[in-house]
Amino acid sequence: MNLSKMKTILLASGVTIMACSMILFPKESFSASIRGLNMWWEIVFPSLFPFFVISELLIGFGVVKFMGVLLEPLMRPLFRVPGVGGFAWAMGMATGFPAGAKLSARLRQERQLSRVEAERLVSFTNSSSPLFIFGAVSVGFFLNPRLGILFAFAHYLGNFLVGICMRFYGEKEKRVYRERRSPWKIFSHALSELHRTRIMNKQPIGKLLGDAVISSVQTLLMIGGFIILFSVINKLLYQLNITFLLAGFTEYILKIFHLPQELGVPIIAGIFEITLGSQMASQVNEANLMHQAMITSFILGFSGFSVQAQVASIIALTDIKFKPFFMARILHGFLAAGITFLLWKPFAEKLHIVSGNNVIPVMLQEHDLWWEYTLNLFVVIGPIITILSLMIYTYLLVKKMDSTNV
User: Fold this and answer.
1) How far is CA 327 from CA 85, 180, 287, 301, 302, in A?
2) Is residue 136 part of a domain?
3) Residue of higher predicted confidence among 305 and 134
4) Residue 10: which residues within 8 A CB-CB, separation 6 or more?
């Protein structure tokens, strides 16, 4: 039997087992589906939708090209990507995954990146958003807002180091001599590129805005489907005890790093779905807070198969390969966990994040609950934003279809 037939049998068997499991565990499947839907409905859609629309408009109006010229002296030496990659990097950190992948794919479609440059860029521009790290993980799961500072530092520093490592990926491009320009000349050239890009895009503003809304909602609907799907898959794996079986393999790795074996199940859960894995890691009483933080940092860096599937679906529309992104996620997971371990003592002493220490620094007393308030605000107004956005999307889509049929 060749490898292709074996792959076909494994895929068919896996899907069949999942279908039968949903019949055997209908209640668990339904609750997991509702959990994933609520997350998308209340948090993911309202937090990502405005950024997706604005990013499409920024690309259309030439602002990204303008920023690319300004950031070229920074991004090219550090990461071996054009300056426009700086926009994708910043938006990826601000909004969370898979914004970096969407922007990287969009820039590749605009031919502002080569294939190798896009693969480098997508590998380090997908990260957890500050809202998720502070609001959901540190406040929601660990009940410790100050721990979010360490999570964020380890996560974003790890992503930066991944970008540095990925600069060595791919063939060396031919070195092009660039004339050294004064800051004023660079700014003047950036303004010229901004104007030229806007002139070349002959679409009216209304058409550009409508296309941005339609594209953003379609991407978010795909993201919501993956969130719900992997939430159900993770629950079924747990019900079938497959999670515990796979956790047995991770226990050997945990022994090497002198970590509690009870963290094996959260790791497996986090490999499939980032939110559930982070929550389970925070509930392992046999592990101390440092060990829980290390495993959570690894899960945040790896991002989970759910997020990776979203990225794979987005970049499938281009010639960007998925393998470099996947390898970068493994690297990011280990780097983030290692940084958490190395910086635990100074952060724990400075920020008083160790459990049982009631002394709170003055600079944090007024702001400890800020992320919790923000998360609760999204839960309240998020569904309203989602409903209004879907209504606008439906109207624009129907209008577009009518104009096409005329």
Assistant:
1) 20, 36, 28, 11, 9
2) yes
3) 305
4) none
The DSSP secondary structure of 94-152, one letter per residue, reads HH-TTHHHHHHHHHHHTTSS-HHHHHHHHHHS----HIIIIIIIIIIITS-TTHHHHHH
Q: Does residue 264 register a pLDDT over 50? A: yes
Query: What are the CA-CA distances from residue 316 to residues 101, 110, 227, 366, 399 (Å)?
Result: 11, 15, 18, 45, 28
Residue 178 phi, psi (nearest 5):
-120, 130
Residues 6 or more apart in contact with residue 361 via CB below 8 angstroms? 350, 351, 352
* Residues 128 and 155: beta-carbon distance below 8 Å: yes
Cβ neighbourhood burial of 6 (10 Å; 0-12, 13-18, 19+): exposed
Whether 21 is covered by a domain: the verdict is no
Contacts of residue 151, defined as CB under 8 A and 6 or more positions apart, other chains included, come to 133, 134, 137, 138, 293, 296, 297, 300, 340
Global pTM value: 0.82
- Encoded amino acid at 7, one letter: K
Domain containing 324: what range? 32-167+178-405
**How many whole angstroms separate alpha carbon 297 and alpha carbon 290?**
10
Which is more confidently placed, 97 or 121?
A: 121
pLDDT band per the 50, 70, 90 thresholds, residue 329: very high
- pLDDT exceeds cutoff 90 at 328: yes
Question: Between helices 63-79 and 115-124, what is the axis angle to 10°?
Answer: 80
Total number of domains in the chain:
1
Asked if 210 and 400 touch (Cβ cutoff 8 Å), the reply is: yes
Q: Phi and psi (nearest 5°) for 144?
A: -145, 90
- What integer pLDDT is reported at residue 261 of this predicted model? 85
Contact (Cβ atoms closer than 8 angstroms) between residue 11 and residue 352: no
Whether residue 314 lies inside any domain: the answer is yes
On whether residue 352 sits in a domain, the answer given is yes
In one-letter notation, the amino acid at residue 6 is: M
Report the amino acid identity of residue 276.
L
Number of neighbouring beta carbons within 10 Å of residue 335? 23
Query: Using one digit for the tens of pLDDT, what is the confidence trace for 176-233?
Result: 545 556 666 777 777 776 767 767 777 777 788 888 888 888 888 888 888 888 888 8
How far is residue 55's CA from residue 65's CA, in Å, rounded to a whole number? 12
- Please tell me the distance from the alpha carbon of residue 292 to that of residue 294, in angstroms, as a whole number: 6
